Automatic annotation (TrEMBL):
Transmembrane segments: none annotated. The lineage of its organism: Bacteria, Candidatus Shapironibacteriota. This is Gas vesicle protein. Pfam families: YtxH. It comes from the Bacteria. It comes from Candidatus Shapirobacteria bacterium RBG_13_44_7.
Amino acid sequence: MSKNNGKFLLGGLLGAAAGIIGGILLAPKSGKETREEIAKLALEITKAVKTQVDETKSRVKDIFGKVSEEGTTKYKQVRDAVIAKVASVKTAGKEIDKDKYGKIVDEVLTDFKSDFEKSKSGLEKLAKYLKKDWAKISKALS
């Protein structure tokens, strides 16, 4: 993967982090609680980002058969949509467990189903990878 694609991946990850932080800022909490939550979430996201670029390349190759900018973009769009939905549910005050997270992944993938008409196995692999991220998501949410 070229140097620009690595920067593209990092930009996507930072964009997702900004979306989550924006959701936290809009939550009805005191300033101190919000700052503490942002600091904790930022630390978790930073840890995830350090290993995320290589992991993303591997996942994109498995899902789409090769690493390409188009595949990487689609993977990140779906992943970011899942993160946004999780943040929305969480900031609404609802609890999210592994089963609820799995349902959120399935709901989001339904919206992207037409993008995977040629590769049903790609959609299934994407679902598997996103659901596998529950441990990372739950850490960031707690």
